[in-house]
Each structure stands twice: as C-alpha cells, then as structure tokens.
C-alpha cells in the first residue's frame, strides 16, 4: 500500500478508511508510510483524515515514529504544516508504553532538528518517562559529542523564558547534574546545568562503577596522553563544582582515587 501513491489514492477514492488495519497488521497505514519514508503518501493520508495521534501497539504515535530517525525532520515539518492548514491538533505530550514523549524520543535518537521543532512548538521539557527521566536526564547521560543537544535545549528554554526542572530526580534518585558528572564526556553539560540553577548542596558524587564505564572507552587507545582524558575531564568537573561551593568529602575521595589510578594518572609522577 505504501509503495504506490496511485493505489493509495484509488483506495481512498473508493471510500477506504485511511485508519483501517489490515487483516494481518496492527500498524495503521500512516505509520507504515512513515516507517518507509513515503512523504507523498504521508501527505495524502493526512489530507484525507488519517489520525495523526493514533498510537500503535507499543504506544508510538506518528510523531514518535518521525522522531526516531535523525533524517526524518522533513516529515516533522510537513506534519505540522499540514495540521496547521487543516486546523488539527498534534499531541506533543503523547506517551508511548515506556512513558516517552516525542521529545524524549527525539533526544534519545539525537534528532536535534526535531527536538528543536518540538520545543519551539511548546513541548513540555519537564515530563518524565516511566524511569522518572526527563529529556534533560537523557541529554546529560553523555550520548552527544560536543554537548550540542544540551546547548540547543537551554538556548530554546532561555529564548522562551521557560522553567526547566534542573534538579528533578529520576527513579534512581539521580539529577541531570549527577548524570552529567557520571558521563564525564559532558563537562560542558555540567557548566550549563550549574548556570541554570543546578543544586550542588545535595549533590552526591557518582560511584566508581559509573565512572569506570567512561574509562573503558579509552583503554584501547595507544596514545598515553589520550588515556588521561577521563581523569582530566573529571578534574575539570571537580573544579566547576568547587566554584559553585561544592567541597569534596571523604566519601567522594574514596570514589575518585581508584578512578584516577585506573586512568594511570599518577603512574609517571616523579617526587623530587
């Protein structure tokens, strides 16, 4: 059906329900067209009454599906353009079976253009999924090289004068700041969070187990200098936290020192 525009057009002309499910399918036609990136068919279905908020068996709406693929931003723009012309409403805060909104889905898949579109269209940045994670928690888990998603997120939040819950805790009790520190590759995220009100008074340093995950990504690097990167970033984070009043306690030191040793930070030190 989704492979031939003329066939779909003919079926619609014959009165076929655009939201019907096939005998062996639980996937709505609009979802199929989106999965196959059939832009013309998507537009045809939308203009003929396809339910743009209809969820599939896993709770994904068409907007969720669009947000799953980085190259699908053109479909997102088209969806909002058509719905505006037809005066139809897109549910920005629809949740799938694990509680993710389209914004969560865009962030998880590093889909910056659609994350920007959703935020500018009014998506709530503070909604949590079933794990208690807001989009900001996910951003701060260190999936994004250069922290571009975090910069974009806060840029739009600031432009719209929105309030974002930077100290929200997920079901592990972790704040976005704790995730940013644990990821180590997201030193910029730490600064962004601190500049937007992240609380250091109740901050608890991540355990060595979480820090080790980042060290392992550098273990196969031949360059001795590059192997120091995790330790250097950890030192930078400690400095950022210290400037905001955080003081390392004995428990923190017990977590950090084994980490530094694994980074071989002290291996080549010479004591005169």
From TrEMBL:
<keyword id="KW-0677">Repeat</keyword>
<keyword id="KW-0040">ANK repeat</keyword>
<dbReference type="Pfam" id="PF12796">
    <property type="entry name" value="Ank_2"/>
</dbReference>
<feature type="repeat" description="ANK">
    <location>
        <begin position="29"/>
        <end position="57"/>
    </location>
</feature>
<feature type="repeat" description="ANK">
    <location>
        <begin position="98"/>
        <end position="130"/>
    </location>
</feature>
<dbReference type="InterPro" id="IPR036770">
    <property type="entry name" value="Ankyrin_rpt-contain_sf"/>
</dbReference>
<protein>
    <submittedName>
        <fullName>Uncharacterized protein</fullName>
    </submittedName>
</protein>
<dbReference type="InterPro" id="IPR002110">
    <property type="entry name" value="Ankyrin_rpt"/>
</dbReference>
């Amino acid at each position: 059906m989704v492979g031939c525009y003329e066939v779909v057009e003919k079926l619609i002309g014959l009165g076929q329900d655009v939201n019907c499910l096939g005998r062996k399918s639980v996937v709505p036609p609009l979802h199929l067209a989106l999965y196959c990136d059939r832009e013309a068919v998507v537009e045809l279905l939308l203009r003929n009454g396809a339910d743009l908020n209809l969820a599939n068996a896993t709770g994904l709406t068409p907007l969720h599906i669009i947000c799953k693929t980085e190259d699908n931003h053109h479909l997102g723009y088209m969806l909002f353009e058509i719905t505006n012309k037809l005066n139809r409403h897109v549910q920005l805060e629809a949740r799938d079976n694990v509680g993710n909104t389209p914004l969560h889905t865009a962030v998880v898949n590093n889909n910056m253009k659609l994350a920007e579109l959703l935020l500018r269209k009014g998506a709530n940045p503070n909604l949590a999924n079933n794990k208690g994670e807001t989009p900001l928690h996910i951003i701060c888990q260190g999936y994004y090289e250069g922290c571009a998603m975090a910069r974009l997120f806060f840029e739009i939040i600031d432009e719209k004068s929105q309030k974002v819950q930077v100290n929200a805790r997920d079901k592990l009790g972790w704040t976005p700041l704790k995730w940013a520190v644990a990821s180590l590759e997201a030193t910029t995220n730490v600064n962004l969070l601190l500049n937007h009100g992240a609380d250091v008074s109740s901050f608890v340093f991540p355990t060595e187990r979480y820090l080790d995950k980042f060290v392992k990504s550098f273990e196969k690097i031949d360059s001795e200098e590059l192997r120091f990167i995790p330790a250097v970033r950890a030192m930078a984070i400690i400095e950022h936290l210290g400037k905001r009043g955080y003081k390392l306690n004995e428990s923190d030191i017990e977590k950090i020192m084994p980490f530094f040793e694994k980074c071989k930070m002290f291996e080549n030190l010479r004591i005169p």
